[in-house]
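Example A, followed by Example B.
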Amino acid sequence: MKNINLRKSLVALSTTALIAGLAVAIPTAARADGPTCSEVAAATKYSARNTQLCTGVDQFGAKYEIAMPKKFNGTLIVWSHGIRKNTNLPKIPVVAPNGYVVDNSPEIAPAPAIATALLKQGFALAGSGVQTQGWNQEEQVLATTIVIDQAITKFPQIDRIAAWGASLGALSTQLLAENNPGLVDAVAPLCLSDSVEANAITYASDALWLTKTLFDPSIKGNGYASGSTGYAQMVTDIGKVLTVFGALSASIQKNPLAPTWPETSTVPATLKGIPVRSAVLLMGLLAGVPTQSRTFDSSSGPKGPLETSFGLVISPSLAVLENAAEAAILAVVATYDLELRAGGVVYDNTQTNWATRLGDDSDVYAAGLTGKTAIAGMLAYLSPLNPAAPRVKADPSAVARVAAYAKIQGNVTVPTITLAGTADHIAQGTQYFIDQYNASVASGKAKPGLLVNIWNKPPDQYTKFTDAGSPIPVDASAPTNGTQHCNFTGSQWLTIAKLLTDSAKSGKAPSSKVVKAAIAKDKNLFTDPNYRGQVHKYRQ
């Protein structure tokens, strides 16, 4: 058993360092009372019998929960949730069909059903809602550190601590482990988000800038005003992005081989002679949007004349269309959030060379891009020499503020398990983290054998078609496993939890044999040290 006083000392040191080093303002610390516990609350919320559910608010205003079963096995699992919107939204189709109110509620697991299953196995669970939303990895690390302190103070029988999180919560989880050696015994950063610069400012904002430049220059995209004016600009942009992608989708469905450009586009007639699906595909390739989506596998085709050409020419564009819509909307919300935090424009593409970005994809996707002449014409339109495609210059002071946000370094000190989708259209940070770890091992900053990587891939073919040859959309609420963001099944979450908690107990990462046995019955999961996942174009 790790000495409880040593653990509390680590928490105290970590909390002090985090408060001193936060790059963003946090409320003044105030004394917080301990949590209030209830077995009735646990039974009501998680259907967990013989379990105490303890709730509280930390000294910075973050709500938290701790669930402790009577038949406790010694391991506390601390969860960090993914990014949440930092502003209320009115009713907006797709984005917020019922409206959205900022959510600061605590989470102790990826889903209530996962929490119930783990509590029945004897694990204690904890998690914070964090006092502020948006790009809050630093506040989340602080909130998680405090909830660990509350848990071990209330329940000194805690012997081991395993930490896991998803997306931005995965980034926070890894930061927690790297910056606080000895605080946790094993971690699982799942569907890991990259740094703010790579994920939101470059990847998503590239997709948004290309959408604006090619399809609707009235989209603002950056430089949002303060107060209600800026909020209105942000909401208006979301509506425009949805309108553009709706028009593109309708056009391609109507005439897949030669779809027309949306009316909002102001590109010259020479470009509008190119099927707009090629411009959509180019946008995706330049930004780094996956060419597999929940509906389109970039392989299958309907029976008939398009059976061969659909997978090669049309499917990649439709996949980008599904994926890029969400990436562009992420950019609107994230840019609005980051500009408010940093005090100015944070996106800058003045030095971006789109031709270099495209690279070998110009050959791989030549058919879908309508050939070399079309590619050259579209890239010329995106040139910094074209006044119709103005570049965006960031505010250096705002960029400096964002650059000060904490970043993971790959200095793995405890058993670490990753899980990521091979067609994740939002977060592509896992492979970069693997590369960071390998570099840390090579330089002697990390021990070998501590990192285990598991990948979640979609089936080889999954696109379905009607008898008339039209693709059948997959509902966004039940996307194809292996696509979308953090799209894991209940059994996949629990498989990772089992590997994670076993590692926290043993102090060792699971062996290749153990991992392969754990995932043997799941046709979507695989592990392969030679496989390279996606890396944001920002990193290339």
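Example B, a separate protein, is given below in the same form.
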Amino acid sequence: MLNYGFIKVAASSPKLKVANPVYNANEIKNIILEADKNKAKIIVFPELSITGYTCGDLFAQKKLIDESLSSLKMLLEETKETDILCAVGMPILINHILLNCAVLFKSGKILAVVPKMYIPNYKEFYEKRWFTSGFEVEHIKEINLFGEKVPFGNVILEDSELDLKIGVEICEDVWAPIPPSSFLCVNGANIILNLSASNEVVAKSDYRRELIKGQSARCISGYIYASSSVHESTTDLVFSGDLLVCENGSLLNSSERFNRESQTIYSFIDIDRLNSERQVNKSFIDSLRVSKIDFTSIPIKFKSHTIDNFDRFIHPTPFIPSNKQEIDIRCKEIFNIQVAGLAKRFEHTTLKKAVIGISGGLDSTLALLVTYKTFKTLNIPTENIIAITMPGFGTTDRTYTNAINLIKSLNCSLQEINIKDSCLQHFKDIGHDASIHDLTYENTQARERTQILMDIANKIGGIVVGTGDLSELALGWCTYNGDHMSIYAVNASIPKTLVKFLVNWYAENTQDKTTKDILIDILETPISPELLPPDKEGNIKQKTEDAVGPYELHDFFIYYAIRYNMPPEKVLFLAENAFKNKYAKEYIKKWLTVFYKRFFTQQFKRSCLPDGPKVGSVCFSPRGDLRMPSDADSYIWIQTL
């Protein structure tokens, strides 16, 4: 099995006995062996985990220092058959200077020793009584341990095959104004290990988690954090064994704090995703100019890069808010962005009327709700929203009725213009047989509707509000110079799954029962452009997802293939995991191939999009977010599927 750019990591907070390196090292050994069996490639233990953080003046005892070294030697011997990089904390004495260090070893060999740079000496902390800052020994580049010369200080461990670079900081370092991890990351480190001993006071854990998440976001890195357990001395402080694995601002996994047993958490960090984000973030690259620190690169090599039992949760609908507590906040924010964009356009043009085509489908419904909220915000009468329904050859009674009723429930001005006669005349003009239901038949209707909207907007002095969404633009599922065009496109960066979610959220929160009932029925209506005649029972026959595939798949593809620039085989792997209980691999592969073909061939439509607000992390505006040639070939993306 390929690793697809993922690496399995672990953070552990072992049971310990204060000032008993023999007991502590034995516990650490058992955890390392178990983590290696679980195929983890990196494991991080707390600060001073071999001795315990709370030894106090015992750190001056030669016996404690010597036993720490003996215990480390035992660890090296007992783990030499493993394939896991380990980071343990212990005191290291160099030229009569005691340093609080992280020792990094793998397969029985010490790779590097990194000292703590910022030594806290305020409030409950008084580490300077025993330890010296790493800043004081920056001239030392290597030390002698067990007769071997070992790299010391500013180091980055590198596996070139994985494109993995690892940096280390210790506890207080990340609380400093400019943490060492910031310099490590701009110099290439994409995973940071933090060996910590952070005590608990009320609300500190929340702040600490936000700090670690924030640093991983700022550094566009993975971050593995391990803190001391409840078995540290409680003379004055209590510790909780807080364990965190973060990736670019997201918390991947965390521990149950105050657990009285040894505890280890695992997660998969996506190195490729981090590297891709860094590549496109020029501010990150420009930060190199402020880094004047030289780092020693230390090569590491794992025996195997494969990943087994991949259990990282891959959200099948990545554009939809997953935190239930934040749904209201996120949905309000999205509406506010759309409303702010449209409101500015009305203020700038000094126009007071909107023209919008309402089909009874999801996209036009969301656009109408946004326009409605915009007019409320600007104190413009909603009667100034000219909502036009334009029945055509494929319009069903269900969508027609929902369109009419929705317009009325929002107190907008309704106009109905049947386009059948106009289209038939056009067929006659261009010599097209109306019984041939081809692209000409479909697109004629779409362009006729757009012409009506534009001409009425000219007539009354209004703005045509666009209704098309991000997913349709990705697939080119829109008629060029038809529904593809508007004066301001409020849904241009809203994917279809999010359109549905927003309409549902509005329905759940509106106080108007009539509007709510209409919205619910719209949500339950099959997605269709309604350009082909209904079936014999008058129901929608032309279903979009039958033609181009499920929108939830395409939105997933957009998120990973376009947002994160992932290769097709990785997108397929992630989709398999996200939809493993719903779609077979071959089914996903089929629509992923369709996605790439359509995305590449339909770029010409995205190259001339109307204005519209960027709402989320993906947008196809040719003026900023997507500068892609209309003639690019999709071959290399499709051939690997």
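On Example B: The mean pLDDT is 95.
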